[in-house]
Amino acid sequence: MSLAGLGIGYIAIGGVIAAVVAAVKRRLSVGDAVLIVGLWPLYAPLSFARADTHHREAELLAALARAKDSPLAGVLPDAGSARILGGRLREAGARLAELDEVLARPDFDPQAVERRAGELAARGAAAAAATAQLRVRTLGQLRALRERYRAELDEVGELVAQLVTQAELVRLQPAIAHTSGELVRELVARVEGLGDLFAYQAAIETGVDPE
After folding, report:
1. Sign of the four-CA dihedral 27, 29, 33, 39
2. Rg (CA), the chain
3. With 0-12 CB in 10 A as exposed, 13-18 as middle and 19+ as buried, what is 56?
4. Taking the model in full, what pTM does it have?
5. How far is CA 68 from CA 34, 77, 113, in A?
């Protein structure tokens, strides 16, 4: 196949992906569309990740709204608190997407940085090698933080799904509504606990040892 043919195929794939992203997000700016078409192997996954941050918030708010119409209403957070929880969940999803984006960069590869530190040490550049080793440690912290975000968001997602299921069960058996309070408390605590990850991330980014 000629280079021209490959180029047309590349752009065609980008156009299809841009259309899919637009359908998922329900809107897509011209700038984002151009980036997806031109850089779709890198940019498209990030666009889907960003769309997912709003999807998580919508799922939480929809689950709480659905449960409001069940005997669980008495143990649910009020509307203002629900919006705050949704915003925190959205922020955590956005931070996870940002970490995925940053850690996908070649210059954020810890093995490459480790090799660079070894090369500097072999040349006798001790100070530069120490700085490179510090980067290796920071990258390790960022990768660990990403996994913590992912684990917490997965857990919240399962709790949201369980809340929806529990609300339906309570509709059929109202007498067990009082036993569902623990589920709601755990869900709220999990989402509120994301603030600890925000603080941990801020410590890393400002150079403070969070341990």
Report:
1. negative
2. 23
3. buried
4. 0.69
5. 42, 9, 51
CA 105 to chain centre: 17
* Residue 103, number of CB atoms within 10 A of its CB: 15
Q: Please name which of 19, 13, 21 lies closest in space to residue 48, comparing C-alpha atoms.
A: 21
Single-letter residue type at 46: L
Residues 6 or more apart whose Cβ sits within 8 Å of residue 129: 117, 118, 120, 121
Task: Say how many C-beta atoms besides its own lie within 10 A of residue 12's C-beta.
Answer: 11
Place of tokens 């119409």: 69
| DSSP 3-state of 124 | coil
Stretch 167-184: mean pLDDT, rounded?
81
Structure tokens belonging to residue 177: 């509504």
User: 22: pLDDT confidence band, cut at 50, 70 and 90?
Assistant: low
Helix (H), strand (E) at residue 91: helix 79-103
For the chain, the distance separating the N- and C-terminal CA atoms, rounded to the nearest angstrom, is 55
Cβ pair 143, 131 in contact under 8 A = no
CA angle 155, 156, 158 (to 5 degrees): 65
